[in-house]
Amino acid sequence: MHVVSVQDFAEWRAKARPLLAGDVPPAQVVWNASDGQSGLFDDTPPPAGVRVVSINKDFLPLAENVALHRDGGKWALLYHAAYRLSHGEPHLLKLATDPLVHALAMMEKAVKRDAHKAKAFIRFRSIGDDTFVAWHEPDHLVLRKIGPFFARRFSDMNWSVFTPDESMHWDGETLSFGAGGDKNLVPQDDAQEALWKEYYRATFNPARIKIKMMKSEMPVRYWKNLPEAEIIADMLDEAPERVQAMLRYSQEIPDSAEPFVPESRCLEDLRHAAAGCEGCPLYKPATQTVFGEGAPDARLMVVGEQPGDEEDKQGHAFVGPAGQVLDAALKEVGLERRKLYITNAVKHFKFLRNQAGMRLHRTPTQKDINACLPWLDAEIEALKPTIILGLGVTAGKALFGPSFTLHGQGGRWHPKGEAQGRVTWHPSAVLRAPDAAEKEAIYREIVENLRIAASAAKKDGE
Ligand code: SF4
What pTM does this model have? Predict the structure, then answer.
């Protein structure tokens, strides 16, 4: 029997590796959890002489999230999964009904949800000298997961967040972590609090006054740390009609991918993170996130609208009928698809089911586009294309703003950050065109714009 003490994910990885390499079955390992978090994302090389064990790449992000769960049994579950993955079950994670996979998925979901709540509910209070502090009591050990988000959002402030387990600190340049704190160390009232109350009054989100919804969106245990909780009773008296109207609005939350976008600007990291995006309601009925794909050094980025039925099933962009039109146009221009980067403005398939159960495409609204925009922006930042070709008006609105129209601004160059962009028809317009002449005309415009974009990207790279 092996008795192993472990504090954090890095230590678990380091200790699990030789056990897996030695074929030690899960039943022969007792994992003792102890408190504390450190070096979570270290990639420690295996000790000399220890066999390298390969595990499905999807396990790592899952394990990183599960490692933040408060339940100390997580280490044994992770080892069990790692053992099965490395001992004849490489596709274990695809078996959603497997009790172990299900348990890990539930733990990951709880951690992600807790991180999301933390991003929404942490409130800073001023302690002078442009320094702010916040107190938060998360269900899980999510501080390190949310740290980069706050560092990005409040990059020009000095701030600290204290939890009972640990604390994090930002000095304008560096994010650091320390021991847990005491709620009494964090001031409970200041000018910021008054501002928060005003802000809350002004932007009043009625999900917070429907008690059941409040409990789900804003867990009761957080209320005591939120300045605005004090004014909820007053607001209930003051604005019953407004409350009803706003309740309808509240059902539309969440409305942005931003809390899910990691700090990293590596396309692979973004892809992994986007797989778990719940930034707007579109993820619920869809099968999966369809993220961009292609050469990480591509100069030409092609942006479509959203995945269709086939893309949603396969998890790849432009693999359905519109993709075939695009492939034909690319071939005509002599562009190899693998040398481009192809993505969509919205990463989940938006559809309606008809009575026969068929999924019918619905055009994304501006709200859908805005919600998903942080992913497109992050892809552009990561890829740094010199030329961006938008396909369809949805891509145009995502790239150049809500007032974009194909007739008004299509087929011309517009600056997009460091890149130059232009927009033409979406290939599905060829399929929808009423007659052969119009199909041909639209197709020719797509080919011509591809040719111009390819030539500009080539010139730019010379
Ligand atoms: S459509 Fe975009 S924002 Fe909405 S859940 Fe999917 S990836 Fe997230």
Answer: 0.52
